[in-house]
Amino acid sequence: MSRLIISEKSDAAARIAVILSQGTSKRTSVNKVSVFQFEGESGTTFIIGLRGHIIELDYPESLNNWSEVELSDLIYAEPIKNVSAHSIVNALKDLSIDADEIVIATDYDREGELIGMEAVRLLDTEGKEIKRARFSAFTKLEIDTAFNDLTDPDIKLADSAECRQKIDLAWGAVLTRFISMSSGQGGSNFLSVGRVQSPTLALIVARHKEIEEFVPQPYWNINARFEDGIEFKGEHVNNPFHSDVDAQKALDACQGIELGKVLKYEKNEKDEYPLPPFNTTMMLMEANKLGFPASRAMKIAEDLYTAGYISYPRTDNTVYPQSLGLRRILEKLKESEFKAEAEELLKQEKIRPSKGKVQTTDHPPIYPTEAATKKQLKGDKWTLYELITRRFFATVAPPAKAEVSSAVIGIKNEKFSSKGYKLIFQGWKKYYPYLKTTEYDLPELMIGADVDVLSVELEKKMTQPPRRYSQGSLIQEMERLGLGTKSTRHDIIQKLYDRKYAEGNDLIPTASGIAVVEALNKHAHIVTDPKMTAKLEEDMDEIAHGSKTLDGVVEESQEMLSNALETLERNRDQIGTEIRKALEAQHYIGKCPSCNGDLKTIRTKLGKTFIGCSNYPDCNQTYPMPPNALVQPLNEECECGAPRVKVIRRGQPVSISCIDPECATNRAKNFIARCPNCGNDMRIIYSRAGKRFLGCTSYPDCTQTYPLPQMGQLLGTEEQCESCGSPMILMKTGGRSWKFCANMECPEKKEKAKRSKSSAKKSVTKTDKKTSVKTTAAAKTKTTKKTVTSKTTSKKTTSKTAAKKTTTKKPAVKASTKSKEDQPK
Q: What's the average model confidence in pLDDT over 92-99?
């Protein structure tokens, strides 16, 4: 008997082959495609990896001419299926000839089911058994279990994925062609519109407008400082005051009062339960807080999954199944960098994992499946693996315990609320350091007792606009509104960046993004309404459950799209004019110093961007675009006559610069040092790829260069390295600053590295020798510490009592007002 196993990717095929063959599989090649082969009790097994979808859905060639094809015809046109990986298809056909059984081992979700079925439908399967292996992790237990308990492919699940493809193709093609042609944006400058993309962009634009139109309103807070053994704070119970008259009246009532009375005091212990296990949305949100774009985080998670380090990263589930074996996972993690944490958690008599609100049966929440070290996983992979591992630890750890206290202090007839918070048992928080815990001191108070009033202050503030969406918070909002799926949301956000509809870490819509959304909102609101997209998502879920059919949902979608197109066509000219004006504003940089025309960004046919004059060919003034940077106009003129712009680069301070790189102001700003070879200026230069380095201004006569760090602010020092004579540079980043030699081959640097290595080796040797001594000494130290602690405590108590007796009476309350105008972001 011969078996053919089809996996989603080549590295997944390799992993399955190693597990099923117990390491005896061999890599061969069929039609230049890697295939893994091994012999078993039941015969020969071949395992081949695809490249995701090997079938692409598209319209026939006859419908690809934008100017000649009626958009209404495109709505009802039947797409064709094109093979995108001929070599893989040929290898599949050759391998399937002698196969008695074909097993689909792609990811178990909609897309994975369709990818597998696409491949199988290309083969002659007569007389062959088609089976499905379902697993959530590339571990031996999961893979062995899946192949020992094969099921039938889920045709309905595959149909729901194909339905999404057909609907998205139609909506994307029709709306993109309409918006692009009506605004005159053809070729590579087309404007993309999509069924999920447009409502998502509408969310970003709506938040942007809310911020732009926000009018700050003043409010006032009254805060007090009290003392009873220790100092603590109180807030007026009526904060915030929206009337300065009422606020001043309350402040005046407190003037001259030296003592406040405790009207209420409570102290309780509170259990703080662990966070729920990671599903896809929560994982991407937390990764985004660590600086990962959503698409990057998902790509790394997929790599970790395929390599066998984490479970399947596309899941809605937030409840661990009872069959998961949490202790078994902790035992594995004893072999990782987290040995101490795993051993500590294993000491619990019973593990009670936390639970989220969503429970599904397809995949468990995301958890670590294999132990890893920093040597095995480096950089971003280790960072994400650590996040997932620590989240798992937190979900199986006991609750944290906190001492929570509250009091109400009366100053005459004005009441102030004080709160205290102290963590008395870390519990799960010990294992999840990504959440900061702030403690507030509040002494034990007696109801009816007096406390000293140190000051009462009035503070004016301004209301703040809502925060912009981060990628993490936008994914959360998309999930709430039913926009996209766990597998597609990160890609949708990345498309908004790629299409130049949004920019920045906090998602800011561009002029073209705003123009497209406003035109659609005004003339075809159904396109940007999340309800329409959410309704189609529900319909696709029903296909998977068997209550609706692929053809029925596609027909419903076609009717929606047809109605939207009719509305758009009636307003074609107005939509085109609105978008064209917005695009001109987006590309505007400033006024041309040669002819006073408009300088704007221009994109060539090859995709390169430069700054040119709108009066070309009469005026041929051009400037290079600052590489790998976001450029924003300031409507300011440099002393040389060229526009000044804001240049934003990741990891570097925002720079206000003249657009002319040869301007004297830019030369002065980028000057770092004198060239050790020729004595001319050395300045920061950016390559075409956006990488900065230190280069001599006498190039090509002098080719002296030095590599530079890509993050942080760099400043010249006019100093030379004592060891090699190269420039010394001042680095500022993260609130710290230090000097370094620009020469990577500096002898002093090499000597320091040698000393550091030697010191590290000695340290390791000493640690090994002293391990046994430390163990013996530990018990003695423990006994001694108890005695010393007892004496110290006694001294502290005596000292505290003495201090209390000599405390002089506090002065009368200092009533003051201060204004802190917090401007909106």
A: 93
